[in-house]
Amino acid sequence: MPIRVHNFGGVVGWNAKKYLPRLSSESYLKLQFVSRRKSQKYYIDYFLEHEEAPHPLVVNLETVNRCNSTCEFCTANIHAEKRPYKKMEEELYYSIIDQLHDWEYKGHLTLYGNNEPWLDKRIVGFHRYAREKLPEAFIFMSTNGLLLDVNKVKSIVPYVDQLIINNYCLDMKMHDNIKIIYDYVKAHPEEFQDVDILIQIRYLKEVLTNRAGSAPNKQSKGRIVKETCLMPFTDLWITPHGKLGICCCDNFEVTEMADLNQVSVREGWNSEKYRQLRETIATGRQNYPFCKYCDFIDAGLRMDAVDDALKHHRMHGARQSVFKKK
Asked: Quick one: CA dihedral 316, 317, 322, 325, positive or negative?
């Protein structure tokens, strides 16, 4: 099926987010921390065993640091944005993609961060180049859909494996332009058979995580979080300046693990700052100042990628054991 709609718990889930926002957020986070604790530890232990850091599972490459939405949980919304405007230089973008090609990167790639990708008029061409250079990578686009129409969908789908349209609203209904896209794709499935299009109906005022204290509608209140975090082990987070930040929770771009204007992608991912961060946070966020109050946990993509990586690791290990026995 080329197009799906997901609304995160139906009417019950929607009303919980609307009328019991804090309880809904805290309950979800507690469940995720408990259910994912063991797998996170396995992956972190596996990661730290390597002299050179394994490839990131997700490369997030933000080409312009602006959004056009009013989502109340995000500092990048048009009312809360404080970052100096920046578009990534084309030379830097192409260099990063070329380096990922030379590094034989085959994981997830998204030209998205704390922004709306369609605000960058180069976005289709950038995706075309990424697809050519990284044919085995899983390329996905995440958009709020406010600028989207059928022609734009047609222009991007040859170069992405998945198109995620986050339909932020107050009434649990598709926006008019998204409904037109949905109807068109349903009527012409043959045009979209090679891409997964996912429409997510999301509450515009939802309370999610405090995002290291940056979320406008959920402050950290000084409560230390002692769980570890996967993001330094799974995500390469690239700002339009070419800096490697810790993760998406650094909305204000204050952390810097490396500068891709000075070092290569591979060198940046293996930098001393990254090594220190990973060793410190492996036993809990309380050990790293930027992360100690952050309650962010990924909604699914990272754990799916982690599970796949661990499965591959175990299968490879089993094959190696067989060869040794022979």
From this structure: positive
pLDDT tens by residue, 298-320 = 867 888 888 888 887 776 664 44
Burial string for 76-115 (b: 16+ CB within 10 Å, else e) reads bbeebbebeebbbeeebbebbbebbeeeebebbbbbbbbb
User: HEC states along the chain?
Assistant: CCEEEECCCHHHHHHHHHHCHHHHHHHHHHHHHHHHHHHHHHHHHHHHCCCCCCCCCEEEECCECCCCCCCCCCCCCCCCCCCCCCECCHHHHHHHHHHHHHCCCCCEEECCCCCCHHHCCCHHHHHHHHHHHCCCCEEEEEECCCCCCHHHHHHHHHHCCEEEEEEEECCCCCCHHHHHHHHHHHHCHHHHCCCEEEEEEEECCCCCCCHHHCCCCCCCCCCCCCCCCCHHHHEEEECCCCEEECCCCCCCCCCCCEECCCCCHHHHHCCHHHHHHHHHHCCCHHHCCCCCCCCCCCCCHHHHHHHHHHHHHHHHHHHHHHHHHC
The CA-based angle 157-163-169, given to 5 degrees, is 135
Looking at the DSSP bridge assignments, the partners of residue 196 are 162
Question: pLDDT tens for residues 213-246?
Answer: 889 999 877 889 999 999 999 999 999 999 999 9
Contact 164, 141 (CB under 8 A): yes
- Contact between 141 and 156 under an 8 Å Cβ cutoff? The reply is yes
Q: Rounded to whole angstroms, how far apart are CA atoms 26 and 88?
A: 36
Residue 56 neighbours by CB under 8 Å, 6+ apart: 107, 234, 235, 236, 269
